[in-house]
Amino acid sequence: MGASLLMGMVAGMTAGTILAFLSHLAPRFGAGNFIPDTDQPKLFGKKVSRREAHLIGLLVHILLSGIFGFAFALFVELGWLSDYAYVPMLIWVVALTLFTGLVVMPLEGHGFFGRKHDAWFIVDALITNVLWGHLFLVLLRVWMLR
């Protein structure tokens, strides 16, 4: 059981890292930054530079990706999700999108479901989470030879 949980965490972190890389590459090909700069960033009430805020954001993104991958593998091992397949992953992705929209986005200052930025922000998040889920499953299948 331990190896599959570790693989889930590593696959989640890897999928998150790939998406973070692509998000930095996309503006070079004409895609705009859909998250505008806000006021001076703060961390626990202390002002930080935009570079520090960006680095912390990347680390949080990769950490959450690893936690979400670990949790998916754990739920499969416990039998709460049926298998490493696309239908359970779609259910998982919808749950993640709801969690990030209700908890993570407000903590980051985007408001519930990202409403401070755009009405379509949550749709972008859902599409990104679906892509994360697909990358996660592909990586697991390659690494676990399924």
Describe this structure in words.
It is a single chain. This protein has 146 residues and is mostly helical. The protein is 68% helix and 3% strand. It contains four helices and two strands, in the order αββααα. It has helices spanning 2-25, 50-78, 86-108, 121-144; strands spanning 42-43, 46-47. It has a two-stranded antiparallel sheet. Helix 1 packs antiparallel against helix 2 and helix 3 (86-108) crosses helix 4. The longest helix has 29 residues, at 50-78. The chain starts with a helix and ends with a helix. The mean pLDDT is 81.
| pLDDT < 50 stretches | none
Number of beta strands: 2
Strand content: under 5%
- Which structural class fits the helix and strand makeup? mainly alpha
Helix content: 55-70%
- Count of alpha and pi helical runs: 4
Main sheet properties: 2 strands, antiparallel
C-alpha Rg, in Å?
Answer: 16 Å
Give the strand line-up of the largest sheet.
1-2
Shape: globular
Give the topology string: H per helix, E per strand.
HEEHHH
Terminal CA distance: 16 Å
Set down the secondary structure blueprint.
Layout: H1 2-25, E1 42-43, E2 46-47, H2 50-78, H3 86-108, H4 121-144
Antiparallel strand pairs: 1-2
What keywords describe this structure?
3% strand, two-stranded antiparallel sheet, 4 helices, 146 residues
Short précis:
The protein is mainly alpha-helical. 68% of the residues lie in helices and 3% in strands.
